[in-house]
Amino acid sequence: MSENFVKEWIIDKEFDGLRIDYWLKKKFSSLSYPSLCKIIRKGQLRVNKKRVKNSFLLNVGDQVKLYKIINVKKRIHKIQSSYLESIKSWVIFKDKNLIIINKPPGIAVQGGTKVTVNIDSLLEYLKYDLNERPKLVHRIDKKTSGLLIIARTLRSAKFMGNIFKDRNIKKKYLLLVKGNLNKSRGKINTPILINDKKISSTTNFELLKFFNGFSLVIASPVTGRKHQIRNHFNSIGHPIVGDDKFGDKNNKNFYLHSFYVNFYNEENKLIELYADPPAFFKNQMELMKISINRIKQNIEKDNDRHSN
To answer: Which residues contact 20 (CB under 8 A, 6 or more apart)?
Structure first.
């Protein structure tokens, strides 16, 4: 690539350890996430003259060059007032560093070609008493409901980015799959194909209840691959109910819910949260005669067992 770059930066201490995609979003907040991913993927943004991936972590002294003119005019999004009223009702935890929401199913985390409203576009309305715009630190699928962690500051985004990178966070998902798993506990190690490469992936699971041809499961992804839980359960012949990506088009509801999270925050305080599943999921659990409290007790016992 020629040296006809548009702009150049040298990374200082403030951005040390920050992901390159978060940094680019900080510099061009009006840029949609898919657009900035495209810039990085095409090599139109380079670090130390080299192409990098979205997950690349910046270091002090890195030279970043942009080879594309970006229109920095703020785009005006017409967002329905109902979403603006709802977004704060989804918040189940807030402190000076983080906001954690219970995302409803059907709301995308980031923008896309056919996405009109997404969590990223609503973050401006979660600033509360701070001037800084909150930042996404991870994603869950549009159809998936449940816990989504949002950083309130750049420093917190860097901290949480490292928590996810180093796998110092416990996540558990509730899901309903087709068929009987035939084992109370297990591990799925099926590699996942990403960009034509087989990537090692691990998901631990526990069967909570089998009823009327369906299994209620709690799954803990050890790795964090795209669509990992969906891929893994489909690979063993038990696709998630409502997952049309893997052929189940008979149920309009998608039964995958980010239920539990556990990590230590910047003050080394334990953050442990549960998010109630959507009404349609709760109704199914009632039919299976299994309660949210029972599942919480199982998780607490499991945590105690691993801490001793």
So the answer is: 40, 45, 47, 52, 53, 54, 55, 56, 57, 58, 64
Residue 290's SS3 state is coil
- One-letter amino acid at 56 equals F
Give the global pTM: 0.79
Cβ proximity of 215 and 180 under 8 Å = yes
Closest to 188 (Cα-Cα) out of 178, 171, 200 = 200
Q: Is 13 helix (H, G, I), strand (E, B) or coil?
A: helix
- Rounded distance, CA 56 to CA 178, Å? 38
Contact 88, 126 (CB under 8 A): yes
- Nearest Cα neighbor of 188 from 140, 148, 237, 150 is 237
At residue 14, the pLDDT reads 74
pLDDT in tens, 217-252: 999 999 988 889 999 999 999 999 999 887 677 788
Domains of the chain: 7-66 (3.10.290.10), 81-165 (3.30.2350.10), 170-307 (3.30.2350.10)
Residue ranges with strand state E in 162-227: 170-178, 185-188, 192-194, 197-199, 203-211, 214-221
Query: Nearest CA to 228 among 268, 201, 198?
Result: 201
What is the C-alpha to C-alpha distance for residues 5 and 180, in angstroms, rounded to an integer? 57
d(CA 97, CA 282): 31
pLDDT tens per residue across span 221-230: 999 888 899 9
